[in-house]
Amino acid sequence: MQRKALPEPVVHRSLGLQALCQRLQGVETCSLLELGSVRGGNVDFWSRFSPSIYIADLRSILPLPASPSEDLEFVAPDWDSWLGLPDGRSYDVILAWDLLNYLELPAIKSLIGYLRPFCRPGALFFMLIFDQKEMPDKITVYHIADESHLRYEYTGPDMRACPRHQPRTLAGAMTPFRVADSFRLRNGVIEYLFELERGR
Amino acid sequence: MWKKTESAEDSRPQPAPPPVQQPVAPKSPAPHVREQAVIGSTVFIKGDLAGEEDLLIEGRLEGKIESRRHSITIGKNGRIKGDIYGKVITVEGTVEGNLFGEEQLIVRQSGNVRGNIVAPRVALEDGSNFKGSIDMSPKDKPTPVPAPAPDKPVIVKTN
Predict the structure, then answer these.
(1) In this structure, is residue B147 part of a structural domain?
(2) Given A22, A44, A141, B36, which residue has the most CB atoms within 10 angstroms?
(3) pTM of this prediction?
(4) CB within 8 A of A138, min separation 6: which ones?
(5) What tens digit of pLDDT does each residue of A173-200 get?
(6) Is there a contact between B136 and A86 if contact means CB atoms under 8 Å apart?
(7) How far apart are CA B120 and CA B142, in angstroms?
(8) Which residues of B touch A (CB under 8 A)?
(9) What is the span of the domain harbouring residue B53?
């Protein structure tokens, strides 16, 4: 059997990250929820905002097993035990990277419903959505190179079909967050910055 | 060809320059050797540990570790279940508990931490394993440590 080579890490422009950093300019401190795994360089990058960061690392449980039949009713994942968010803490920024590509729309909806009480008014939600036929089979690791560049570190050579969440359906699943910014990049990724509507 | 014209004054024999007095370097004190206590890999402690010197722990400990003015290193074999308070904390082994670094906290590639980190500077090496929260906000800094007691009594001059 021939082993596929792991694709080399590539640096891509990130207008979404740039927009997020611009939003954070001037803040003295902020609270971040990292749904991906810990990366030292990223923690170092965020340190300029004197943050508190909670690392939830959803990568270890995604992708969720696909529903064996369309007739079965969706059962919400046990986010509480998977994320283990501490009580009494709330977040200004949620970093989801590409994780939502590995969730079906009902699961995204239930995740947002679970996260909502942990969000501060105006909380920002940053994510990358693949808009190609295929996407990496395993979740990619993103290293922040600078305020407007990300280094994609692929963790496996295989590809899988991409759900290609459409903007309108994605926006529906993200309610009560609304799209604050979106950027279609040349590498087939759409970066979204959602914002929690104040008063919701 | 060319010859520098020397004045009469220049041609007079010059008195020998006085020997240059080399500044005598003050005797440097003996190099300061940092004291470090080592808890070996075969040691298992159940209870709290406090000290006034740097600590290297390679063994197992269940309890609180406190050495707020000194460095604490959890070596590759170290297994800690409990909170750690130190100046600079380095984790190469496994910690299940909260870490409070007065200055810095480092989780090396081999490090595995389940708990919360509170430190103004945090370095997590890629490959390290961490789940919990990192708090670098100044307002949530650990309580300042009182200044160490001076070694010698302070003399106050009065007129």
Answers:
(1) no
(2) A141
(3) 0.76
(4) A154, A155, A156, A158
(5) 999 999 999 999 999 999 999 999 876 6
(6) no
(7) 9
(8) 107, 121-126, 128, 130-140
(9) 36-140
